[in-house]
Amino acid sequence: MDRLPLIAPRPPGLSGMAAQLRAIEDRGIYSNGGPVVRGFEADATARLFEGKGDCLAVANATLGLMIAIRQAAGARAGTGAFALIPAFTFAATAHAALWAGLTPLLCDIDPLDWASSAQAEARAFDRYGDRIAVTVPYATFGAGIDLARYRDYAQRGIGVVVDAAASLGALDAQGCQFGTDAPFAIVYSMHATKVFATAEGGLVHSGDCALIDALRRMTNFVLPAAARPKARGSMPSCPRCWACSPPNGWRRSMRWPRTACG
Length: 262
Ligand SMILES: Cc1ncc(COP(=O)(O)O)c(C=O)c1O
Prior knowledge:
InterPro entries: DegT/StrS_aminotransferase (IPR000653), PyrdxlP-dep_Trfase (IPR015424), PyrdxlP-dep_Trfase_major (IPR015421). Keywords: Pyridoxal phosphate. Belongs to the DegT/DnrJ/EryC1 family. It contains 9 helices and 9 strands. Bound molecules: pyridoxal-5'-phosphate (PLP). Pyridoxal-5'-phosphate (PLP) binds next to helix 3 and helix 4.
């Protein structure tokens, strides 16, 4: 019996991008945050997020989650405080919290939309109070989750990072890209298995440009921050050859039906 694939990845092929790859070689600029990556971030902000806020390209969504969770935890990173994570997500979410020195605290999902349950979150806040430093909801399989609830948490001083791995191309109830202009970090994957695929890659968006700037510095060993680094940095920046694939990705994503979500 023939097997039906669950998904059929169609990332843009590098072989179709000979001109763009040659242009990179001709320019000879091999730099963190060079023109291809920065151009892609600016295009993503303009085309997907209506020019609001800013975007940061990273090598994959796991690395985006790692830096965003660490930044959201602030001084509580490394203390073992809790990161509230839905019981139904991908292992990367909990691994990223562990990397930030937090303890994953699993929370039930809602059986109707498979996303973190508001009641279960409320019970966790009642029980653990300010031991919860960060909450990392997952927009399950690209479904829209209620960001108003998370804005509320953010206003109460709880760090919020949204794992929106499958949501690049998903629309919210207003017809905008899910996550547009959010005050916290929204982390998307561009892995080959995702709708907006570059084969490998991640994108972090926020309406808060200062937050994206802080995350950008974390991708570059916290440079060019002032004398003493205040956050732990690494180098999860997006490789140039993946960043040049979105021009093909743009064309494809225009053809693909966008995932609607409420
Ligand atoms: C929910 C979720 N979070 C994070 C990731 C990690 O994404 P990436 O492969 O880009 O690191 C995935 C990947 O499938 C995912 O499904």
